[in-house]
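This follows on from our talk about sequence and fold. I would like you to pick a protein and set down its sequence and fold. Go ahead and set the record down below:
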Amino acid sequence: MTRGVVLASSDASARRDLARYLEGAGFEVHELDRPPTTHDAPSLVWLTGRDDDPDITVVEAWLDASAERCAVIVTWRKAALRSLLDRFADRLVVLASPVFGYQLVDALRGAGPADR
């Protein structure tokens, strides 16, 4: 079963490498340089920059759009997403940078509704 993933990162090299890894794990990956406001993929993976605070309004809008959506945010600043973790505990995973591809796969497979 192929699941769609939006992979957002301003680092094109890291984005390409992780996209290949996720595709090898069976995901259909849509690469973008920043998180979209709309997309039909059920999952978002967002690699934030080292000096960037993740924009909680973007994450919140993604998750609010559908109860079937999940998000995995990779950030150097996990505390910025604490309020959203309480609200979306079953559909939001926040990982501390840096991460390995297998950590993203595990997070995507563990987040969100089990029947996806």
Observations:
- The domain at 3-110 is CATH 3.40.50.2300 (Rossmann fold).
- The two ends are 9 Å apart (CA to CA).
